[in-house]
Amino acid sequence: MSTSAVSTAEAVAERALGALVGAKVEDGSAVGWPAWALTDPSIPARMAVDDVTLYNGDAGIAWALAGLGQALDRRELTALAGRAATRVLGNPDALSGGGLLAGRAGGALAAYSIGLPGGAMSSPRRPMTCDLTDGAAGVLLAQVRTGAAPDHDLVRALARRASAQEVGWAWADALSESSGGEGSAGEGSAGDGDRGAPAPLLGLAHGASGVALALVESAAVAPEMRPALALAAGGLAWESGWFDPLQGWPDLRGDESTFPVWWCHGAAGMTAVRLRLLELAEQGVDLGMPLSSLRAQAHAGLELCTDHVEAAVVAAGAGELPSAGLTLCHGLGGALDALGYASQVTGDEAHRLLAADALGRVAGAMGEDPMQWPSGTREPGSSSLFLGLAGVAMIAARLAWPDAGVPCPSLLR
Question: Can you tell me which residues bind Zn(2+) (predicted)?
């Protein structure tokens, strides 16, 4: 399986990259990509070259192309990334708030990836939410990823907004600062959650895993941030209380519990976080939390990702494609990337080879034109990092060329 799986992953990476580059829209030296507007399903789908976010727009594509170009020594991709990042830097007002996936911190990350100064992306105010998408956790993680000094005030804000649970801590955001998020918690104390605020969530995009990741990463690079580890441990302890060894972690957004294996609200992203924390522990970072629980949850999460991927292969063989295709956020890509990352952390190549084989089989069932593959939006044809082909290309490249140093999109590193 190994040789054929890897060669197939190479082919998928090249096809996705070719389609991504072919979809660009040029205006002089500027370059961008059409993006589907993330609107209510009752509104007709609309595509325009106006999204510059990390999540669904040009910042994410620039970050992906920069990482791929540098790792694979593809100068044409690096040059394209530079042009895209320059366009993002020229449109700071198109980014709502200072957040990572939907705001200016994402623009700064794209600029940093190609060696451009990101000063134009500085936000006039700190985010009023907590999560990785729009909030303080995302800004904190962006500071770490761009080599900036972590901001103590962001950690203090996360501490103030933490809500004490029966076990540990959680964060509940109200309406988000951007149209794509779940919530925006204003300044306040830990008790604000008792006054009708929404319930806290699990997971990487809007939940405790995303907050914990940012806190631990900041403490790993700045020893003076070590008090953040206790806050992270509390968030992970709360998530552990929801963990079901057979089903994983529930998605708490709906009335009925589901257990998705997604990057955003499910086992794929949460497994990647736990693998990253174990990797940091192996590098000598004292996490201040029991590693046995992290190992057990990472192992169980990988089993869930494996089952999910194998089921997707069987379904694709019967003509039933994943609703969001191979994309990162809520498609099969989150589980594939978690498996690939597991091989990087544990040294067990079986995870990567299984993922590479599944990638090829599902891609083969989706047809020849990547622009017609299912995406993370209502329509095919997304080029973005989290919902489209930029993310697919990165995931496939990491599975095909594990030693090249292609960044991990699940962790933005």
Answer: 264
Residue 197 confidence (pLDDT): 57
The interaxial angle of helices 291-317 and 333-346, nearest 10 deg, is 130
pLDDT for res 188: 26
**Which pLDDT score is estimated for 96?**
81
Q: What is the pTM of this model?
A: 0.93
- Kindly tell me if the per-residue pLDDT of 383 is higher than 70: yes
Distance CA 180, CA 55 (A): 9
- Residue 221 CB-density burial (10 A; 0-12 exposed, 13-18 middle, 19+ buried): middle
| CA dist 373 → 147, 365, 381 (Å) | 36, 10, 7
pLDDT of 122 over the 70 cut:
yes
CA dist., res. 332 & res. 318, Å (int): 16
264 in a known ligand binding site: yes
Which spans in 284-388 are helix H? 291-317, 333-346, 349-366
